[in-house]
Amino acid sequence: MTPAYLFARRERLSAALAPSDALLVIGAGEPVPLPEGSDQTYPYRAHAEYVFAAGSECPGGVVAYDPRERAAGWRSFVPPLTEAERVWCGSQPREGEDVAGFAAWLDARKGRSIAALGAPVPGVNADAAATDAARLTYAEVRRPKDAHELDLLGRAVAATTAGFARLPDLIRPGVTERTLQIELEVAFSHAGANRTGYGTIVGAGPNAAVLHFEPSNRAVAPGDFVLVDAGAEVERYVADVTRTYVAGTPTGFQRDLHAAVRHAQENAIARCVPGAEWKQIHLATAVDLTAGLVAMGILRGRPESLVEQEVHALFFPHGLGHLVGLGVRDASGLARGRTRDPRPSLRSLRMDLPLADGFVVTVEPGLYFIPALLQDPVRRDRHRDTVNWSLVDAHLKIGGVRIEDDVLVRAGAPEVLTAGIPKALD
Ligand code: GLY
Ligand code: MN
Ligand code: MN
Questions:
Q1: Atom of ligand 1 nearest to the CA of 322
Q2: Over 90: is that where the pLDDT of 93 sits?
Q3: Each residue of 44-88: pLDDT tens digit?
Q4: How far is the CA of 253 from the centre of ligand 3 (A)?
Q5: Interval 104-146: pLDDT, tens
Q6: pLDDT class for 344, splitting at 50, 70, 90?
Q7: 405 CB less than 6 Å from ligand 1?
Q8: How far is CA 165 from CA 83, 168, 191, in A?
Q9: Are strands 74-78 and 62-65 parallel, antiparallel or unpaired?
Q10: How far apart are CA 161 and CA 157, in angstroms?
């Protein structure tokens, strides 16, 4: 029996795909064995496009859709359980038709164009143009979250909140980044997480300026910034949260840096309303962050003009955020018909689209002292008059601050799903 939420989701897909006569084939993908014959595989994650249409993960599964049959056109093929799976893994029977029948389904529709999403399915000759068109339409349907997705996301947020609640008591000089990671992830699991949604980031001191830092055995030193970016996953739905702490009493400089990021982040959240262009929110946030740096004496000039000169990218070298939900990047990307903005500080934005009711976005500005950028002679020369380089050099090992929340865009006001995780410095 197809659950009601999945039936409704497929209806939305059918309607959106209707202008096309192409068949849709969505592969889950196969587990990838670990090398050296250990009889184990890498942790399995079915392709997100499959999970969206199937409602669950099934290695080797295929969802197929014939638009000429509308609601009856959705078929789910699954591999039959093998004895080995029953003996070694205790696997239970799966819902769906035997995947052996997929070849006959395809054969009965010979000559039709095929859009292939998800993981490749053997024997399917995809049409590239039909695939590109279907992928874009599919992403558009995935972006607004349905009630079932928001429920799973709520559970991921609850587990994430429980994990972050452990941190303030643990962050003391002497604790290692790795210990913080372990305690956080244990708390996620106790609170219902299946696993983490991505590799947990814990960076202390200068490591806080490494955007995707893998926790090390470095012990937190007195006065260090400690940046933690982590999220629990529940049935493939993921939260993505960052908080930055100080081990001990923050200095005035640390307080100012944290306040500048927090102020910019809260302004950005307020701008997350239906119809707002993500790129404009990113640029407005860059202006707010730059104003903070001007107030601290790190930059000189008018914030808008400094952003036009891309000075902000020395300290804020990433995009404001991305969609989050079914995977940490969810169905981010470009609105229909758009190409990437070629400006150096914008070309790596993970999305360029107008927000709409039901989207869940991360809002994650940051200000960092990244030696690889700030010690680059070309950048120092280009921005010699607008940056107070001696003040920068005095703080080159301070690390950085990022604050990240998951925000549900609603017609009234944005709803901060992760509001239960405190962000104040003390
Ligand atoms: N956790 C990685 C990111 O914030 O995008
Ligand atoms: Mn993050
Ligand atoms: Mn993020």
A1: 5
A2: no
A3: 999 999 999 999 999 999 999 999 998 999 999 999 999 988 998
A4: 25
A5: 999 999 999 999 999 999 999 999 999 999 999 999 999 999 9
A6: confident
A7: no
A8: 44, 7, 11
A9: antiparallel
A10: 6
Indicate which atom in ligand 1 lies nearest the CA of residue 229: 1
Q: Name every residue whose Cβ is closer than 8 Å to that of residue 334 and which is 6 or more positions away in sequence.
A: 340, 351, 352, 353
Location of each CATH 3.40.350.10 domain in the chain? 4-142
Amino acid at 16: A
Residue (of 240, 185, 178) closest to 203 by Cα position:
178
Query: Is the CB of 352 inside a 6 Å radius of any atom of ligand 1?
Result: no
Atom 3 (ligand 1) nearest CA: 240
37 pLDDT more than 90: no
Strands ordered across the beta sheet of 232-234: 195-196, 232-234, 237-238
Q: Which residues surround ligand 2, an ion (CB under 5 A)?
A: 229, 240, 404
Q: Are 152 and 237 within 8 A, CB to CB?
A: yes
Ligand 1 and 198: CB distance under 6 A: yes
Ligand 1 pocket test target in 184, 233, 328 with most atoms within 8 Å of CB: 328
Domain spanning 147-416: which CATH class is it, in words?
Answer: alpha beta
Ligand 3 center–CA 227 separation, angstroms = 13
- Asked whether 229 lines ligand 1 (CB < 6 A), one says yes
At 1 the pLDDT is 81
- For residue 38, pLDDT over 90 is answered with no
To which CATH superfamily is domain 4-142 assigned? Creatinase/prolidase N-terminal domain (3.40.350.10)
Q: How far, in Å, CA of 217 to CA of 173, rounded?
A: 13
Instruction: Please work out whether the CB of residue 364 comes within 6 Å of at least one atom of ligand 1.
Output: yes
Tell me, yes or no, if the pTM score tops 0.70. yes
Query: Which of 164, 198, 213 to mutate to test ligand 1, by most ligand atoms within 8 A of the CB atom?
Result: 198
Ligand nearest the Cα atom of residue 241: 2
Average pLDDT score over the chain: 97
Q: What is the dihedral of CA 82, 84, 87, 93, to 10 degrees?
A: -20
Which ligand neighbours the alpha carbon of 363 most closely? 3
Report how far ligand 1's centroid is from the alpha carbon of 229 (Å).
7
CATH 3.90.230.10 range(s) for the chain read: 147-416
385-408 pLDDT, tens per residue?
999 999 999 999 999 999 999 999
